[in-house]
Fold this sequence. Notes:
Layout: H1 5-29, H2 48-81, H3 97-126, E1 133-140, E2 143-148, E3 154-158, E4 175-178, E5 182-189, E6 194-198, E7 203-207, E8 213-218, E9 223-228, E10 241-247, H4 249-264, H5 274-278
Amino acid sequence: xxxxxxxxxxxxxxxxxxxxxxxxxxxxxxxxxxxxxxxxxxxxxxxxxxxxxxxxxxxxxxxxxxxxxxxxxxxxxxxxxxxxxxxxxxxxxxxxxxxxxxxxxxxxxxxxxxxxxxxxxxxxxxxxxxxxxxxxxxxxxxxxxxxxxxxxxxxxxxxxxxxxxxxxxxxxxxxxxxxxxxxxxxxxxxxxxxxxxxxxxxxxxxxxxxxxxxxxxxxxxxxxxxxxxxxxxxxxxxxxxxxxxxxxxxxxxxxxxxxxxxxxxxxxxxxxxxxxxxx
Length: 279
Ligand SMILES: [Cu+2]
């Protein structure tokens, strides 16, 4: 089938419009703090780290697209212009200093352009700022326990609740944090390696028995945020969700008072009973 230049142009325009529509839909499908049907983009950011990750992801997507289209265009040009039929007497050119320097230097510059924001992001993730609140998240087979050592030293278990929405993400006792406060999360595993991950905050860190890992987030929006254990940890790996409720300072203070009473006398929540709880 032969297409005129106009036809090709119209098709390309159609593709571009379809792409733009898809992009617009992606944000329509997005739901704060949890996955949504037909979502193909990153979850909406609710922390400075995740905003950075999203920016870096978009930056790389554009860069990759430009490079791919450029290489494809070169290939198409070679196929069309320099095949045996179109170009029966090929030139014998072997070297071109300018092009050789360019195709060595340009990739180096591109890599440096990627490395700079990449390292900046890595340091942002790894450098835990002075925390307003520390929470210790312990991965257990197959649920999470959250300890609040700064706020009255209570600890509680957070188990998936069958009757709660969203399905497979709702829990009985959510982890609660104040909005716009720096929360340091210390993770460890009680039995096997788990991984504490909340996409909207841009955090994912292993919870390893005998080790204390740390990460941090600053939730910039109130609401519910969900994550899942992200390390294959046994038969109920898929059923130990992470639910974080972000509230205002006043609500957080009220919740701490309640939680202190609610969980203080619960021996099942002490670290000594881990073995018993797992049975
Ligand atoms: Cu796990």
